[in-house]
Structures are given as C-alpha cells and as structure tokens.
Structures
1.
Amino acid sequence: MLSKIKSIYKNSFVYKGIEKSINKRYKKQLTNDYFTILCPNCIGGVIYNRLGKRFDSPTVNLTINTSDFCDFLMHLDYYISQPLTDAGFNSHNVPCAVIKGLADIPDITINFIHYKTFDEGCKKWNERKKRINKDNLYVIMYDIDDLNEEDYNKAGYAGVGDLTKFESFKCNNKILLTRNKNNKKPYAHYIEPDYSGPYPLVYLTRNALGLNVFENKWDFVKFLNKK
C-alpha cells in the first residue's frame, strides 16, 4: 500500500513541480558547460539530468566494479579505443560487456543495468565515448569495494591500490563519497549513508522532495564549477 502511495505521489503534478523548481535552481548556479563526469554508477546520469545536460560520458546508466573503474581511469585512452565484447547476463540478469586488456592492462566488466540487451548498452557506450571532453573531466566514486554487494556489512571499502589509482588520475576535480569518517584525504567527503535500500544505492535514495541523499550532503554544482 505504501509503495503504491509513493508511486502516485512521484507521478503527481506536485512532485513534478518541486522537481522542476529544484532543477531550475541547479541550472542557474552552474557556470560550467560541456563537461564529462566519469563514475562507476548512476550518480553521473542523475546529475546530468538535474542540470538538463547531454550525457557527455560513456559511464552513464551502468555500473562498473570499483577496481575495474579505477583501472579504467588509469588506462582511459586504451579502454575507450577498444570494442566491447558481449559477456552475457550476470547473476542479476543484467546484460554485461567486457573490454579486453593486454598483458599489463586487465579486462574490465561493464554492467548495463538500464538496458535490456548488450546491443542497446553497447550502442549508447559507443555514442557517448566520442563525447568525452578530456579538458573538462570530473570523477565521482563511492568508497565501496563491491558495487554489486547489497549488504553494506560485506561491501567493504575501496582498497588502497584502487584509491592510489583514483588519486593519481588527472582531472579538474574528483570526489570520493564515503561512510569512512577516518578518511582525511582532500578528495574524500563523508556522508552517512541511507541503509534502508540496496547498499550500492545508499546515496541515491530520494526523500519526499525528490532530493537524493548526496544532494543534501554535497554541493555537486560547486564541484562541477571548479576548473
């Protein structure tokens, strides 16, 4: 019954009006344009939608394991130049792709969680990778060891090796959203997660006004305005 009420509210004129007002405020504050957000989850797509921007990044509407994502950053030019290989469906019945590596570059897996088939996801990946603006790059990552693990007690934190790669990647701005209060790195931003849903979505749970957890705790527009 509660889920039905929530669904009705989210499709109401009131909710859509609030969302439109919030988006308008974000757009007015933004001073940057044609930027690429690289991230291993859906947060990039949420931000692009908020700002009414085209998806100028291939890492939208998909998930990538944290370690694979950090390797993706380290060898960005290589991975975006390679074709995707159909890897079938994962245990969550999500179509997957693999980008084959070399002797010193590992394979990485991409989960097309918002697409029904590999071909749909592959088409969008190939379209969007051509739009990457290497002169206006931003990176957003969660401090989660396994983005597919729904139990936060098992998810852990990103490993030291992964964070070293993340830290070394050159871009306009980067941020690590973390529940680890002890991480004092300049790019780390503590946010207490919402544990009420699947753990990989801890910062994407919306409140009654339609604001995601991350929006209440982090100024993503200010983050994108830094050049």
2.
Amino acid sequence: MDMKMILNGVCPHFINGTIISAKALGDGNINDTYLIKTPNQDYICQRIKKEMDIEKLEYNYKLYSKACQENSWLYPTWMPSDEGGYFHIDKSAYAWRMYPFIRGQILKSPLSEESYMACGRGLYKMHLALADIKGRPKAVYPHLHDLKYYYEKYIEIINEKPDIKKDFRDSDIETIINRESEFMLNIDLGPEIIVHGDSKLSNIIFNNGKFMGFIDFDTVMQGYMLEDIADCVRSCCLTEGKLNMNAAHNLVEAYVSMAPAEVKEVVLNGWQDVFYKICFELGLRYYIDVISGEMHFKEKTPGYRLDKARALLNYKAL
C-alpha cells in the first residue's frame, strides 16, 4: 500500500493538521489496517474489503455503539468523514474509515488464570449488553459460521471440473472432511442471541488484566451463544496446537458464573462439541479458499492457508 496515498488521499477526509506517519498494523485476514500518528493523537485507519456492505456496517455501528457507551466500554468510535457518514470512498471504490487509537492491552496466549477468567466474564457482559440493544443487527457476513453453507460450497467446488482443481487439493484434508462432516453438521448449537461473531483474544481489550471492551464489531449479528464462546476458547486456549483444557475450563466457568442456571447447563454441556465445530468450519473455509482461488483470507506466507486448514481440521482428533 502506498503510504503517501493514505496520508494525502485518505486521512485529510477525517482529520485536519499535521500527520507524522502511517504504518501497517496487525495481521488481520480481511481489512487492511494502519496506525496514523499525529503530534497529539494516534488513529486507526482501515481500508474495508470491497465485498463488505458499508450501509450494514454503519447501521450496526449505531446499534452496538450505544450498548458500549452505556456500559462505559472501550470500542472503536468511528469518525465522520467530510463526505458525510463514516466512510471515505477512494478512486478505486474502496471504503475507508478512521477512529482514535484505543489505549489498552491486547493480550496473547498463554494467559494467566485470571486473564482467562476475565475473558469469560467479559464475553458474558458483552452478550448481556447486546441483548438489550434496540434493533436487530444486519449480518455483514450472512453465512458466518454457517457450516452447512460452506460444506455445500465445498462439495460443489470439488465436483465442478475436478481435473482443474486437482493440483490444489489435499487428500489427507479431504479424508478428514469426509469422516467428520456428518457429526459436525448435526451438533446442537443451543440458543440464538446477538453475538460479536469474532470473539477472538485479539479483539478483547484489557487494562491491568481487567476486561475493558471489544474491537472489530464488523461481525456482530444474530447468532449462537455457544459459537461465540467456542471461538473465544479457540483463540486463547490452545497450547502448542492443542486445546488446553484447564485454560478453557477457567474461561467457560467464568462465563457461566455470571449466567442463570439454564444458561450454565447449556454452556457446560455443549461448548466442547461446538469448539470442534468452529475449528472444523474455519478449517473448511481456509481449504475452500485454497481450492477455489477466492483469496478471502490473506496468504501471509507461502502455504499459509493450507497449513491453517490442516491444523484446524485436525483439532477433532486431539
């Protein structure tokens, strides 16, 4: 990305004054994110993937931002552009947004026992707050975590001109998919609620070990409580590629410690199967990306997407 274009072509639509620098930040799979430094304030500037519906993003922002404000949480507070609304559209039809850089801690696993518990409590607090928002979020990713949709897409891809796809296919991965798909497709996902949709550790903000808020609400939607819990477990309770049951237990127990008895029973009985389903579904999506050439996920290093698919699909065997 041309940093001069960001500095001169994007940032002035949101902020006035001197801009010191812009640099790429993080390793997100979808949007391109940059840290913008000025003499008095740092900002985040993001280029939004073209497939994302910015009208839905803006509609959802107005819903969840109110819940975050009422709970005094940290979250990305979008800045209005000089074109109206929250986005600047560049000459290549990409949408850009900006918000002040959030001062907090993004932790990396392995965590302390208390931090695992803080994740669980924070996730429950977020679910409780989102339940009170006035309105129903519009799904920016309509098939997020929809395993049936991705499995049918996979079958369609491998049956369509298979000779063209054969150089990209992996027989070991497809053996796992064929063996596990029926079980995964029939897992009970429990009750629907409004969920974050991408409740991974890198989206949770801490301060001195205490939960302070969430970032990246682009996936907020009507979904399944157990999937949000399981995705959080996946992101922070893996040690050397294996599920750390003690860590997962601490996170899940902290979540249910704040929940009513009926929720506690559902979570304790169902989270582990849904954890495997989340891993399977994400691994399948990475594999679809490889054999279809869609490039939804970034190929961070040669073979990255195939390695991710293989690792995620193998979690059921642990």
3.
Amino acid sequence: MNDRRTEKPLTVARIHMLWMGNLMLSIFLVSVVILSIWLVNRLLDDGFKESFFELWWPILLIIIFENLLFWGGIILVYMTSVQLGIRMRIIGIACGMIPVVHIIVLIMIISITGREARFEKAKMKLDEQRSAQQICRTKYPILMVHGVFFRDMKHLNYWGRVPAELEKNGATIYYGNHQSALSVENSAKELALRIKNIVEETGCEKVNIIAHSKGGLDTKFAVAALGVSPYVASITTVNTPHKGCEFADFLLGKAPAGLRDKVAAAYNGTFKKLGDTTPSFIDAVTDLTASRATEISGYIDQFDFKGAGVYTQSIGSWMKKATSGAFPLNMSYSFVNKFDGPNDGLVGEPSFHWGEHYTFLENKKKRGISHADMIDLSRENIAGFDIREFYVQLVADLKNRGL
C-alpha cells in the first residue's frame, strides 16, 4: 500500500563521483595555470625554436594529461550534480571556446559542485550517525498532500528530495493522490476517501498529514466536515492561504471572462490527459480568493480539532525580495506584496496562521524562502536553510509528541 514515489537521493557512489569530478577540474585549472607559466618562461628564456624542439614531447604529454583531467571531470560533474542545473550546463557548453570567459565559467562550475559535494557528504554522515535512532519513525505514517495545479506523479515527486530524506530517517510516507484542481470541498472528498483507504488497508489507525498550500484547506475541510477526524493524528499546513489571497480576488475580478474561460479550458484539457478526471481550474482559483477562503475557514474553524484529538500547526515562509524566487514567483512577489504584504511569492504572511502552533521561517542569509522552496521544487541547496533537515526535525517533533 505504501506508494513509494520518492526521488532517489544522491547515492554514495554518485557523491564520490561528483567529488572526484570536482577534484579533477580543480587540478586541471591549477595545473594549467602553473604549466602555462612554466612553459612561457621556458620559451622566453631559451628561445621558441630551440625550446619547442626540445619540449615537444612533454608538451604533448601535458596536453593529453590536461584533456583527460578536464573531460573526465566535466563529464563526472555533469552526470552527477543536482545543483549545477540545466542553465549552468548550457552556459558551460556555450562558453567553452570563448577565451577568458571559459575560465570564469569553469571556476563557477568548480565552486557550485564543490559546495554540493561537501554539503551532501556532510548530510550523509549526519544520516549515518543517527540511523539507529530512526528519528522520523512516527507512531502513525505521514500523508503528504500536494497543493493546487500539481499531481502526485510516479517519476516527479511534488515534494522533491524531502520524502527520501524522511524515509532514510524512519518515516513511512503516503501521498494524497487527489486531482490537481478542484474546489476545496471536492478535493476534501477525495482526501477523505484516501485517508480511510490507507487506514483500512494498512491498519495504521491514523495518519499524520503534512499539507502544502491549498492542500491545507482541503485537509482541514476533510477532517472538519467529512468525518475523518478519528483517523487523523495531526495536521501540519505549509504555506497555506488560510485567509486566502487578496491578489487572487483582484485577478479574478479584472480578468476578462473570455480569457478566464480560455485559460480554464486549456488547463482542464491538459490535466485530463495527465490523469485528472474532472479538473476545475475556476473552482480551485475561486476558493483561493480572500473572500471565499475566509468563508471556508470560518466554517471549518468552528470544528474543535483539539477536542477531536487532532494536533494542528502551521508553517509559513518569506521570500524577502523578488530575486529569492524562481520564475514565476520572482514576477509575482512584488505584485502580491501590494495586496497581501510580506509573502512567499504567492501567499501573504498573515494568511499562514492556523492551529495550536505557528512557525514563521525567515532565512538569516540574503536568500529568502519561497512558496516553491517549501516543497523543494527546484532541488536547490539554499544557503542558510536546509529544507530536507527542516522536514526531518518537523517529523521528529511529531514522533516526540507520540503521534
């Protein structure tokens, strides 16, 4: 029943290959500089003709050696690096024959892959040290609920590298498997059925739910209105718009009806091909508006979650500036800021608050933490914030609470 769709983490072999590739490129860069200086001095001191005829064979060996170092190193890091990304790989290829620029790009590649290798080796060491503790082996399994406009896919995990890291530390993971875009009520119906199926088929009694974005609204509705509270031990909402988004009201109010219908038709048609049966773009977006979300939350929050034995908490994050997020969040950040204040690129900070405990994540480094960063969408190792370790500690806390 445990539908494992976790992405494979960097294995020991891949990390060693990444480290070796980075080392080879570093040696190549240093040795090219040293040998070039030596060769130029030798040619200037002894004369070009005499030195060339005397040194042709070591020059040939040096060229062969340097080519082996460079191509071996570049192939290894291109094959194994996650942080290098597609853009940097393309830049590396495009600038490979441009004098001076290719050296700058090579230094950038060495820097990026070196940091990644050191970070991943340290993470592996940490996981090995605490392996016996199984700090994420909670009493009840974890049900991870995606947000709007995404699906739980077999080969592309919505939660990035997070589930694999949780499983390495003892967690049992399930996924919501609900459609990408429905009204909160209809998504909640699918989640309620999913929760009951997991409990019935595994005998686990309850689940701990971690829900991102609109998934938090769907989860609250399922528990409060659809009778599954006896099967839920805890709800953790991540960057969920509990009070909705003011900018969504603005967009729906200003967008021409014809344009809305065309976008909705295109979206619904595409996601039907991807597995949704009855996607509804308009219903999903409408339930994210401040007016509608406040109405839904007002109804849901009449339910006594604590009295029903369900521990509740919420988490939010802040981008700080537009450049903290990738497209399209870097475009929407300033726009959302005008309507909703400090935000994660989509949801304003005041809308995150819900439950018995609230955590607001603010990176001490210059780089903020976006809506997408909270599900490891870009698989980026963010300076000052380790998304995988954040979730490990989050689930470890649930374990410590006996959940």
